[in-house]
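User: Let's play a game. I give you a shape written as tokens, and you guess the letters that built it. Ready? Here's round one.
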């Protein structure tokens, strides 16, 4: 059985998967049949050998054979078994007679029970049902035994085979009565059964043949199994070889891995060494570079200092020469003007006296002749037309004479001339005509003299402008002034700020620095002194400050771009100086109006356009636009590089056609700044505001044209980042402020140091971009450094003053102001 289970279903499967071998489909049947046949033999023999000796029974009929054993199965039962379990051919032999008898008896007994309808007896038909024999052994219908009873009887017959012999005998005795009657029937039945048995035997023989075939197949399969076993043995050998190869490969792999790790470690060490070396090299190079840079910077500073000194010497010389020339020129102009003035006044006096005497005479004559006139009215009608013309001429002459303060005299003389003419008309017409011509000639002379005087005045005005701008250029195109605001009543702890040259034109300011301990533990205080073009103390008023800048404002009317800044920390007085009611903006515009009107006499006509721009967080805002557009409407700044002019897009620009417009502008701007302040706290302190006044003038007489711009800038608080302790949005604002202020410093520095046409970093911030054409070039710049008087602000004050000094030392234009440095105590810090 083991071999059968291991038999492969086909050869191919058997080699690759021995465990999957399948049994042939016929084999189980064959095996069970073989066993069944064996069992049949054993059971027959056992039954016989175990058969007990028949007990003596007086009721037993002597002529009938004893049943072989009570345990033996009936033939019908065995036939059923054979059908299910074919017997081996060796065991197939003809049934012995005893067996046949037993079968006969069994049938007789069962038949008798069929007749009695007793289902306890096994039924042949039921026993062989399900196989080929059943059709032959079917009980005749006359028995009419119900199928259920037959089934029941079949199931019970098995147990009844074990019934005690006494009971069997009893039943056989019952059968004997009927046996003779039915003998023939049973003989037929036996014959039929034997026929069936023969058929069955033939089938058995067929089965035996099949068994032989199976055995052959088994032998073949066993051979195949042996073959597969040998293949498996071979494969195992190969497998072992492969396993040993695998082990070798693994050990090889481990070795290579270790070598690789070792190489990696070495590589890491080498990389680290190289990196260290590189770092050292870089540091060396940096060090060398720094040294070189310092040396170069020192050289540069030295050469700059040399050049500066050289230039200063030359400038001083030039200044002196210019000063002398200027003084001479002035003297000459003064002398000429004086001579001209006295000559003209003498002439005017002579003409005045002449006219006055004539007027007087004419008045007397007029009175005398008034009456005569009435008499000669008739004659006058003829000359009325002429008289009207003369009157018209007289009016014209009066207008012209007014310009040279002689209009009254002209009018009187015309009156007198008219009266004289009347006289002449009355006396001699020829004399009248010549007198009239004489009068007319003199009048023409007077007009020409007045025009010459006008022309001279115009020339003087042009000369004044030229001289003024020359003086401005000599002073330098960037000027720095300092203003220290007063301490308020609620403020305490003022800083120690002094004004060493506190006379009328103070130019110096000194600040006592904070207390410091020296290395020796000694308390020291540094004094810082600064010098500017002008220093205004706490008592100074806005009017006083404006006087100093009024000439610059005048330059804007002359076609210059002018920029005036207020620089300083929050609360130092920038807005007060620039935009308060009497600050620089209202004063400058008022002066421009007055001056523009004065210049109208000289033929100048001016148009003025005002804009107010805020630069907040590196964004432009229109302070004259609608407040709801703040931070929303994008203001664009465009430059016309050819004309060197700046244009603003998306902004409101106000035509300044009267002084009251300035107040309106300031009011609107202030309102907008208040709205903006509610959005961002302290916004006005953290934004730059730029008031831009564009002035375009044309002279109808000379055909001249001038275009100038006045920029008045209130810068954002200059406090440094570390002092402001700002965070978040405030930090960004502070960074932007610091950036734009440092860009402003860079631009001023670049303007001072770079050659003409050199790069100026205007584009680095919105503020410098906006003021591109108002810083450097043909422009004049003034910076007010505003100073808080408080000790708490001392550090920022010193920083602001240092920045201002740097700007002051910048060379823009043709001249530069020399900075003076004052030092007072030990541990002094030199001012740049
Ligand atoms: N010269 C001065 N005389 C009298 N008061 C002054 C003077 N300068 C400034 N003040 C006052 O000092 C205060 C602060 O001045 P102001 O607002 O002009 O400073 P600021 O530098 O413009 O500050 P912020 O950067 O915040 O705009 C204001 O109350 C102002 O009126």
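Assistant: Ready! My guess for every position:
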């Amino acid at each position: 059985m083991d071999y059968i289970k291991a038999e492969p279903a086909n050869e191919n499967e058997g080699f690759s998967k021995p465990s999957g071998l399948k049994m042939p489909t016929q084999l189980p049947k064959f095996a069970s049949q073989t066993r069944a046949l064996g069992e049949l033999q054993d059971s027959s023999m056992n039954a016989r050998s175990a058969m007990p000796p028949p007990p003596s029974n007086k009721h037993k009929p002597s002529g009938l054979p004893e049943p072989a054993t009570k345990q033996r199965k009936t033939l019908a039962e065995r036939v059923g078994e054979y059908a299910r379990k074919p017997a081996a051919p060796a065991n197939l032999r003809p049934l012995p007679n005893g067996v046949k008898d037993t079968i006969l008896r069994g049938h007789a007994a069962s038949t008798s029970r069929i007749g009695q309808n007793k289902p306890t007896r096994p039924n042949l038909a039921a026993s062989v049902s399900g196989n080929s024999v059943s059709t032959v052994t079917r009980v005749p219908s006359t028995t009419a035994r119900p199928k259920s009873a037959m089934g029941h009887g079949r199931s019970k017959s098995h147990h009844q085979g074990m019934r005690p012999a006494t009971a069997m005998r009893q039943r056989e005795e019952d059968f004997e009565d009927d046996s003779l009657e039915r003998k023939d029937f049973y003989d037929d039945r036996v014959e039929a059964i034997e026929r069936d048995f023969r058929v069955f035997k033939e089938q058995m023989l067929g089965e035996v043949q099949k068994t032989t075939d199976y055995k052959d197949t088994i032998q073949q399969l066993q051979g195949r199994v042996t073959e597969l076993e040998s293949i498996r043995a071979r494969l195992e050998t190969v497998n072992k070889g492969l396993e040993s190869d695998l082990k070798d490969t693994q050990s090889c792999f481990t070795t290579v891995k270790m070598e690789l790790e070792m190489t990696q470690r070495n590589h890491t060490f080498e990389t680290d060494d190289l990196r260290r070396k590189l770092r050292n090299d870089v540091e060396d190079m940096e060090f060398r570079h720094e040294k070189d840079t310092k040396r170069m910077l020192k050289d540069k500073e030295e050469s700059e200092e040399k050049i500066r000194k050289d230039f200063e010497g030359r400038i001083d010389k030039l200044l002196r020469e210019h000063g002398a020339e200027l003084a001479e020129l002035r003297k000459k102009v003064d002398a000429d003007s004086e001579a001209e003035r006295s000559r003209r006044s003498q002439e005017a006096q002579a003409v005045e006296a002449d006219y006055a005497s004539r007027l007087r005479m004419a008045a007397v004559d007029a009175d005398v002749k008034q009456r005569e006139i009435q008499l000669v009215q008739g004659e006058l009608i003829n000359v009325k037309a002429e008289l009207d013309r003369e009157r018209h001429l007289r009016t014209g002459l009066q207008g012209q004479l007014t310009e040279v303060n002689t209009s009254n005299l002209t009018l009187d003389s015309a009156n007198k001339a008219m009266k004289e003419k009347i006289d002449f008309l009355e006396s001699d017409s020829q004399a009248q005509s010549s007198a009239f011509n004489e009068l007319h000639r003199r009048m023409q002379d007077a007009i020409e003299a007045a025009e010459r005087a006008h022309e001279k005045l115009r020339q003087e005005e042009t000369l004044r402008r030229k001289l003024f701008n020359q003086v401005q250029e000599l002073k330098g195109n960037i000027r720095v002034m300092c203003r220290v605001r007063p301490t308020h009543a609620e403020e305490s702890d003022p800083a120690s700020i002094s004004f060493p040259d506190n006379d009328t034109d103070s130019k110096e300011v000194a600040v006592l620095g904070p207390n410091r301990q020296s290395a020796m533990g000694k308390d020291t205080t540094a004094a810082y002194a600064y010098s500017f073009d002008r220093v205004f103390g706490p008592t100074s008023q806005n009017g006083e400050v404006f006087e100093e800048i009024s000439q610059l404002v005048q330059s804007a009317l002359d076609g210059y771009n002018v920029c005036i800044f207020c620089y300083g920390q929050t609360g130092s007085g920038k807005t007060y100086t620039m935009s308060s009611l009497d600050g620089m903006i209202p004063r400058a515009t008022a002066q421009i109006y007055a001056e523009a009107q004065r210049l109208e006499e000289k033929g100048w006509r001016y148009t003025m356009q005002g804009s107010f721009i805020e630069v907040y967080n590196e964004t432009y805002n229109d302070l004259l636009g609608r407040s709801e557009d703040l931070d929303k409407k994008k203001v664009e700044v465009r430059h016309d590089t050819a004309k060197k002019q700046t244009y603003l897009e998306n902004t409101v620009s106000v035509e300044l056609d009267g002084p009251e417009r300035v107040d309106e502008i300031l009011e609107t701007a202030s309102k907008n700044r208040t709205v903006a302040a509610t959005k961002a706290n302290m916004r006005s302190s953290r934004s730059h505001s730029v008031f831009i006044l564009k002035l375009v003038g044309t002279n109808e007489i000379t055909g001249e044209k001038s275009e100038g711009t006045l920029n008045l800038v209130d810068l954002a608080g200059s406090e440094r980042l570390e002092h402001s302790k700002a965070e978040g949005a405030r930090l960004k604002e502070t960074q932007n402020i610091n950036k734009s202020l440092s860009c402003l410093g860079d631009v001023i520095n670049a303007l001072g140091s770079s050659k003409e046409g050199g790069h100026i970093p205007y584009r680095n911030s919105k503020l410098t971009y906006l003021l591109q054409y108002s810083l450097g070039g043909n422009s004049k710049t003034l910076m007010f450094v505003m100073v808080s008087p408080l000790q708490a602000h001392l550090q920022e004050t010193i920083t602001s003053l240092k920045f201002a000094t740097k700007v002051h030392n910048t060379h823009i234009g043709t001249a530069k102001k020399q900075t003076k440095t004052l030092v007072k105590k030990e541990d002094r810090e030199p001012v740049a």
